[in-house]
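Appendix C reproduces, verbatim, an entry submitted by the partner laboratory led by Prof. M.T., so that reviewers can inspect both the input and the predicted structure.
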Amino acid sequence: QTYPCRVRVSDSSGNTAEASVSVITVAALIALDTFTRADTTSGLGVTETGALAWETPTGVWGISSGRASIITKSGATDFAVINIGRSTNFAVEVEVVGTPQVSFRYADTANRFTFGAKDSSTLYLRRFVSGVGTTLGAEFAHATVTGDRFRVSVVGNVITCLVQSAGSSTWTQAVQVTDSALSGGTRVGMHRYSSAGPVATSIMVEPQ
């Protein structure tokens, strides 16, 4: 947030000066993980910032060469999530490997939101309630490659999904909707369909 302030300074001779300034407060990150710790095939541990424990309800996850990875698949979709204690007023950002998706407002595997790669050329936003999936908004044409960043911002019930292409500093809005479903889902993370292997090189969660 930005706060207006009035600053007065004085020197040793008694001269004074005043100026109006704005003070910007920067909220601490909720979580950050770059997976740079030692390789393991027995879970993801806890986030570097926030010390939030990774939960892996499906699949065997681990760390391989600085990447969160699915070591062994256990179903069509395997998830890794952390509990951030809120379902709104946050943003989650994931640097992806391959074509995964971001999970948010995640309550369990059957009740969650997801944003990310539908396939190698399309992004979409989906809501799952009792296992039934619904596409929200329009699909967005984007050829996902390793190093892309997916970002989901949830402010109130406004969900904004963005993508940043690998090597770029520009964010592009893919879809924005208003949806109040799954307000009890307080987990965020990532998942991928189809195959084992690396999924992400980093995840960051910040308040909004």
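The radius of gyration is 20 Å. Additional entries are available on request from the coordinating office.
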